[in-house]
UniProtKB/TrEMBL annotation:
Family matches, as InterPro entries: 5peptide_repeat (IPR001646), PA_immunity-related (IPR052949)
SUPFAM superfamilies registered for this protein in UniProt: Pentapeptide repeat-like (SSF141571)
One Pfam family recorded for the sequence: Pentapeptide
Entries under Gene3D superfamilies matching the protein: E3 ubiquitin-protein ligase SopA
Name the record gives this protein: Pentapeptide repeat-containing protein
Source organism per UniProt: Rhodohalobacter sulfatireducens
Coiled-coil region list: none
Length: 186
């Protein structure tokens, strides 16, 4: 069965999505929680004020996709097709999502809720976490080389089990890096 192809379209307030390839499309105010997005290709697509919480992402492609003001709770980005995986998030709720072993071509977070997000074994080189809440986010064997966490908060990152070479932090972030030593920094 041939896949449908959609190009240069705007989808507003839709509640279901046809399997296919979407190129240079915009999705606005779409309510698609628990949706099966398996095998769908999103190429240079924008999502604004959408809800994709707990949707299935098996072999879903995000090639230069951007999400703004969207709810993406409980998504498993490790199930996505990793070929040319490039995605950015602005003002999004990604709580309880997972980026386990993800190796993106490009990834950035701005003003996002990333509470209890799993970044275990992810390769997050040069990723920007700009003003993000990382409360209870999991960083284990994560490569954060040259990542920028200067404006983010509530994170606990163990420098002994994560690569933080040339990453950027603020002095006030020391407790989040030294928490396992149970020391008090004033």
């Amino acid at each position: 069965m041939a896949k449908s192809y959609f190009s240069d379209l705007v989808f507003k307030r839709i509640e279901s999505l046809e399997n296919g390839d979407y190129e240079n499309c915009r999705f606005v105010n779409c309510i698609l929680p628990n949706c099966d997005l398996s095998g769908i290709n999103f190429i240079e697509c924008e999502f604004e004020n959408c809800d994709f919480s707990t949707s299935k992402l098996y072999d879903t492609s995000f090639k230069t996709a951007s999400f703004a003001k969207s709810k993406l709770v409980g998504l498993r980005f490790e199930d996505c097709n990793e070929f040319l995986f490039s995605i950015d998030f602005q003002d999004c709720n990604l709580n309880l999502s997972s980026f386990y072993q993800v190796n993106p071509q490009n990834l950035s977070f701005e003003n996002c809720n990333l509470k209890e997000v799993d970044f275990t074994e992810a390769v997050l080189n040069e990723v920007s976490f700009d003003n993000c809440d990382l409360d209870s986010a999991i960083f284990k064997n994560t490569n954060l080389e040259k990542a920028d966490l200067r404006t983010s908060y509530n994170f606990l990152i163990d420098p002994e089990t994560n690569n933080i070479k040339e990453s950027k932090f603020l002095l006030q972030d020391l407790p989040g890096l030294l928490h396992k030593y149970n020391i008090h920094i004033e």
